[in-house]
Amino acid sequence: MWNKVRHRNQPSRRVVNNEFELLRIFRVTADSSSFRDAAVRLGTSPQGVTRAIQRLERHYGEVLFHRSTRQVRITAFGERLLEQVRPALEQVEELWTVPGADQQASVSGTVRVTAPHSLGTRAVLPAMERVAKRHPDVMLDVRLSDRISNAVDEKIDVGIRVGFMRDSRFVARKAADMRLPIVAAPRLIKKVGTPDGVDELADFPVTAAIDINTGRPWSWHFSAGRQWTPVSPAFIADNADMEMGAALAGIAFAQLADYMAAPYIASGKLVRVLQKEEPPAWGLYVYRPQRAPVSARVRAVFDELQTAIGSLPALP
Fold first, then answer.
1. How far apart are CA 114 and CA 271, in angstroms?
2. Residues 305, 161 contacting (CB under 8 angstroms)
């Protein structure tokens, strides 16, 4: 008889499962742009997501999302709840994994990734291909942008950034060194010659890469911390591959990341100039927000991106 009696304060297994599912829906919705987007990720209907969020809002007596016709935006209360919900759900999901069981089946959920455009097909796509092959239940949400992302506000799980990250909110791992050679096509060098120093660059056709964060050209970097900004460029672009295309076409000299230029330098389609003036190598970092514990899906993407970055072409 004792086994048939449940203490009045003890929740039933069904209630616990329902509460867990409501919080899981809340987490996915917080990582989505709309209820419809969340429904697609969850494999349910927008109405089902709406009902789940409304139940949670009645329970907490607080609004979790500001709704509009196009998007939803999490409230301040929702953000605080999410900070508690996310690690708690990840802990439960990890505890539910049977030790020694097939891990591939347990790795699921959405991972949002951000990276510069120039690393999209060179590193991100190969890494995502391996993740998708090993963990087919993981949804990969990749956002390429040369704009400096606010990873916390944009709910980024894993990202790639050039240069060291000093933000204590993130875990960053250096995956490779990146050199910045100055290059030009042989036919342009045959036509105009080569500069003997940094100051002479102003007399040669050069490219200018636009920093979309400021709308101004990026400075070229050289040894001893010296910088030089193109004043009268022959070619302006806001995309690194377009800039490299201009160099390959013989339009102008360009300063490019070695993971882009190295194969063309090796084939002779680009020539490296002012090599003694090149700056020290920069780091290529894979990072993630400091959320503990780290879910298996995020760890899988993080590790594969490290491997992909480490496999990029490089100059000796």
1. 31
2. no
User: Do 26 and 52 contact (CB within 8 A), yes or no?
Assistant: yes
Residue 142 belongs to what H/E stretch? strand 138-144
Q: Domain for residue 1, yes or no?
A: no
Tens of pLDDT, residues 243-287:
999 999 999 999 999 999 999 999 999 999 999 999 999 999 999
Pick from 32-41, 71-80, 147-156: least confident:
147-156
Please tell me the least confidently modeled range out of 36-40, 64-68, 69-73.
Answer: 69-73
Range 216-228 average pLDDT: 95
How many Å separate Cα 161 from the centre of its chain? 8
Token reading at 227: 């910088």
Domain count, the chain: 3
- 161: closest CA among 66, 283, 251, 266? 283
Same domain, 218 and 146: no
